[in-house]
Amino acid sequence: GGGGVDSKDIFALPTEAVGTIMGPRGTIIKEIQNETGARIFVDKDEQQGSNERLVRLHGSLEQISKAKATILQHLDEWKRNHGIGGEGGGEAEVTEFVPVPRASTGFLIGSGGSSVSQMQVETGARINIAQGKDDTIDGNPVRLVSLMGRPPAVQAAKELILKRVKQWEEEGSAPFRGTGEGGAAGEEDTQVDVIIDPKDALGYIIGRQGSSINGIEQECAVRIRVIRDEPLGRIVISGRPRDGERAKKLVLERLDEWKNDVGGWVGGAKRGRD
DSSP state, 103? Predict the structure, then answer.
């Protein structure tokens, strides 16, 4: 890497403010890019379960901070024009995104969401761990954790999240930087193959837009690949042995559900295909 010259920042804008901030045909954003030298990308779709869109800035730290300051000035102007925040409303809410190693998300969420709930209660911030596709930082897969609330609450939540990630790293989960040492617990990552027969059940196991598979990945802190181009479906789970077995059990439960409910009415005709 070039000594960290190219940095990255991610923050959110209210969807209804995006048009004003970008300007007609993106003219304002282009102007900010030209003035600051930062590259600016605004997501087309909202973040799941929110009415906000992510803005991603790339460039040197100086370029990024100038671009972000200019965009936030435009946002303040938009808020004033719409009577949002302003006098008497106390501090306006902010949203901040914290990238965490993808494999740590299960640990952060906790059993049945217990850890996230606890952090929300402690800090007063709303915490949401992005589902779906990963971002990468220095070639490592990361998930974005969005923190929403008043600035002190968001700051407190950020500190707690980073503390939990450190705890996850120290407890011997695969270290964030590369995968050199197996971690303090001395457990090597293993790979578990689950054969999906009939292959027709794959869609159900994966879930809408990958929701079920993502859920299993997060809950069990594993990585999952779906192999479709073989006669039978195959799901490959990578992670610590204990986590891999737990994820396999959840995948097989989805397969049983499909056989009992969903696949039942399709009829067994397709089952013999190979």
Answer: G
